[in-house]
Amino acid sequence: MSRTPIIAGNWKMFKTVSEATAFFAEVKGKAEVAGVESVICAPFTALPALVEAAKGTTIAIGAQNVHFEDNGAYTGEVSGLMLKDLGVKYVIIGHSERRAYFAESDEIVNKKTVAAFKHGLTPIVCVGEKLEERESGATKEVCKVQTEAAFQGLSAEQAAEVVVAYEPIWAIGTGKSSTSDDAQDVIGYIRGVIAGLYDEAVAAKVRIQYGGSVKPNNVSEYLGQADIDGALVGGASLEPASYIALIEGA
Ligand code: PEP
Fold it and tell me: Is 167 a catalytic residue?
């Protein structure tokens, strides 16, 4: 089963509209490599300009969050209906920063994942353990619980389209990365969890990224592993040259 590698930049709360469009002008044509999917997940404010700039390119634009309702009295929130209307293709769901700072539970992550599919958005669902969970040997159990919760209620066709990002929390933005062998071990396990929920054929289609201090100089090592299909990248996705190098290295 060949899965198209997917590199997604997670800009977090960085870049104004003018910074985002200047970035895009620099990566256009360069962060477009045949056989690698290139995604930029930007703050909501930069999405309209980026969607416009990305027209005619192979770079997809993603959001970093979505509300699970289509509309309503949810001050400050943005729905899947609205993102789809903009032309956004991907949405990051359940990033550890959202789980930690905005109290996103597994149940909310699942509702957002279901909402993404309702509007034809592809979810990038983040799972991963905290340092203390890693140290107590709970990594796989934590990933199993988070993965099973996220996939609840998805059809086999939808499940096959999910992009999972395995991000050990202790490796995010810290410069400490999981070894590629350790990441492969957990990601292979997550694929097995998905096979248990559906079957081997569905699990073989799901793309699973590694995330946590991925840089241009280590991206190919992760992608060389059998079950690692890409990377979700924070810090190293913010500079055009680095983002291009990530795509080229994939
Ligand atoms: C992330 O934001 O999902 C991430 C993995 O960040 P970094 O690459 O900076 O560790």
Answer: yes
pLDDT tens digits along 46-71: 999 999 999 999 999 999 999 999 99
Report CA(165)–ligand 1 centroid distance (Å).
Answer: 11
Phi/psi-derived region of residue 15, left when phi > 0, alpha when psi is between -120 and 50, beta in every other case: left
With beta carbons less than 8 A apart as the criterion, state whether 110 and 72 touch.
Answer: no
> Over the stretch 158-185, which tens digit does the pLDDT of each residue have?
999 999 999 999 999 898 889 999 999 9
DSSP letter string, 46-58: GHHHHHHHHTTSS
Separation of CA 160 and ligand 1 centre (Å)? 24
Backbone angles phi, psi at 91, to 5 degrees: -145, 130
Class in CATH terms, 6-249 = alpha beta
Residue 137, annotated as binding a ligand: no
Structure tokens at 143: 């990933």
The reply to whether 136 sits in an annotated binding site is no
Q: What is the DSSP letter of 150?
A: H
Cα angle 116, 250, 216; round to 5: 105
Q: Which residues lie across from 231 on neighbouring strands?
A: 7, 210
ipTM of the modeled complex = 0.98
Nearest to 106 by CA among 50, 160, 164, 151: 151
For the chain, domain boundaries? 6-249
For residues 111 and 207, give the distance between their C-alpha atoms in angstroms, rounded to a whole number: 20
Write down the catalytic residue from 37, 67, 95, 104: 95
